[in-house]
Amino acid sequence: MRTNKTIFFLILCAGLLVSCKKKQDDTTIIIHKTEVKKSHGTEKVGDQTRSYDFQWLGSNYKAVVVRKADTSLPVATDDEGTKYYDNRIEVKILRADGSEFFNHTFTKSDFQADLDERTKDNGVLYSVIYVKAEGDNVELKASVGSPNQMSSDDYVTFTVKVSRLGALSVSKDQQLDTANDGSEGDMGD
Hints:
Blueprint: H1 2-20, E1 48-56, E2 59-70, E3 76-77, E4 83-84, E5 86-95, E6 100-106, H2 117-122, E7 124-134, E8 137-145, E9 155-163, E10 168-172
Antiparallel strand pairs: 1-2, 2-5, 3-4, 5-6, 7-8, 8-9, 9-10
């Protein structure tokens, strides 16, 4: 009988311990600490290759645009202090038989004359895209500006023309194009 009383006493104590346990407040909200992504050195805007097929002067052509970060160029810094490598963008225009009609590698220095000091120091050559082939020229658009296009729309656009003789001309756009006719694309995609 003593054994039964002992077992009963232990069960009673266990029940009291469980019932006296503090209940968790249902209004407690658990928030997980988010880690701030630390920069692992100098960033790249993003290496990319694009090609555009088009007709010009009665023949088929292809513009191939290759953007690559270049560690030999001066480093740019965005408004948050993140450092970025500047880019080199190679543009080739190929004939239908694959032979090269035009080849030029652009850097920010191709556009220096029309850049303010801030963009000269902390901007990158962001993109060169094919726009159209019309008359005696193939028209491209180039942009130089903040390396972080996600947080800034600070950039300068240029019209780049290649003549039927392969001559290159660059002019700063006076007005920002806000309409996209579908033929343009952003190298940042």
